[in-house]
């Protein structure tokens, strides 16, 4: 499992940095050394801030954006009007953009106040009005610099930072045991941390790796005694930059460890080669070759190791016995050859002596020399036999030592394998015990996962909140003290989900259903109404009116005989069938919009309502009161949000996932 990370950061809903670290697989231990508390703002002040025309508005932090937005919602105010909004970094911009719906500028070169002041549009600010939304007792660099450049600066302090260091002593042992990296992005929080930890923890903190934004925090760490090699500066304070720097540290450590292992292997190989060369020089002086030592057994693969040891022992014993047999045979042959040569020389000497006419004194001297030669040869043979016997004994002793070493290595490997089996059995029993004792944690993890699915796939906020409350009650009843941090984060997630706006699609569907019958009674536009012919004059039955009757009959015949119709894309007149087709088309669009609303399909919902409005504008009387009322109601329904903006993940789920992985893999229970 990866080493732990201590995140010095105030508690907040779904912290993106903590989520990013947990997604990379790091166990995160979050420690808040200060609390962010909203400051009550007077209604007159908020009204002044919102109704003044500003040249620029600067929002310092994500907390300032969120808290200011809540104050505006409480007092039913909108965001201040300004030529442009500014933030120090991209993180604040991401939070501010959906809240204020304004164009936002931040310095791309670096996410600091100094980089923001370096923007060209902030160089000359004479007689301009600027608003800074910040926290109480924050840095005065922006306000002072803008004032020096001629701006009238108003500071809106919307929150305050209150130290919270009571929990530090309890958490220090946990950090020293599990944490290898510390991430902090605020100088003020860093000072609170170092000023309130024990001396032993300060020594530990000076030896771990620190991941911080470049600039003032690194200098402050140096003043606290942290070596510069332990300080790693990120480009800025965004989660992406901090996690990227952490990954680079991990890769660098892995490469260093690989290089160190390679050097160790090379040194070991050189030492073995030197030892082999020295042994070869010693054995070349008339000593038998030293048997090859057995290989160091590898952990695991017990069967292969046992076979290897047995084969090596048999081969060494066979080679040693064969070598001794060859030495003995060579020694016996050499001794027999020397004795045969000496016997031949003696026989030849005895045969040659009478022929040479030697005196008795000379024969005696020759016999003495021969006796001395025999004795010398016998002594030489005795010494050689003694040396060979000692060499044979040494060889046998080496073989016996090798056999004993092989047996000892085999016994050691057997004992080690037995210990490993015992440890595995104990770990298995402990794991089973932990699984049985932590069933409530696993069940809570499943409940939170089901709550996320209810939010993202069914948009059922009520069911999701019910599942989260069940998980909270389960952890609280089992061991509230051990899961205090998870329970606290779960409560924050519940509050966050409760604060989200709820979309009542049932009401929208019912309103669309009630509107469908009213479409049939809407009056058609006069441009498309069928004109009623003038009432035909009745033909008189009086014979005296025969001239008028002939004239009327001819006019009727000629009008029926020749008709001229004009088509400009749409019929100039709509008959009953065409009108029924248009009204049924509008009713169908309203039905589709009703189904889209019930299934939270925002695009389908808006497109179908737009098509219904198009038909109403094209074919119906827009001056009629019923048409105006129906059109206004459809327009209002179209603007209602259909797709709830629910979170795709919860920080509680990530924290439970880390705890469950720790139980299943590393065996660290509570």
Automatic annotation (TrEMBL):
- Keyword Disulfide bond listed: no
Q: State any GO BP term from the record.
A: tetrapyrrole biosynthetic process
State which residue ranges cross the membrane.
Answer: 301-325
Supply the name of the protein.
Tetrapyrrole biosynthesis uroporphyrinogen III synthase domain-containing protein
Q: Which residues form a coiled coil?
A: 332-394
Give the top-rank taxon of the lineage listed in the UniProt record for this protein.
Bacteria
Q: Which PANTHER family match?
A: PROTEIN HEMX
Asked whether the UniProt record includes Zinc among its keywords, one would answer: no
Start-end of Low complexity biased regions: 268-287
Q: Which Pfam families match?
A: HEM4 (PF02602), HemX (PF04375)
Output the Gene Ontology terms for molecular function: uroporphyrinogen-III synthase activity
* UniProt keyword annotations, A-Z: Coiled coil, Membrane, Transmembrane, Transmembrane helix
**Which residues belong to any copy of the Tetrapyrrole biosynthesis uroporphyrinogen III synthase domain?**
17-242
Q: Which InterPro entries match?
A: 4pyrrol_syn_uPrphyn_synt_sf (IPR036108), 4pyrrol_synth_uPrphyn_synth (IPR003754), HemX (IPR007470)
Q: Where is this region: Disordered?
A: 253-297
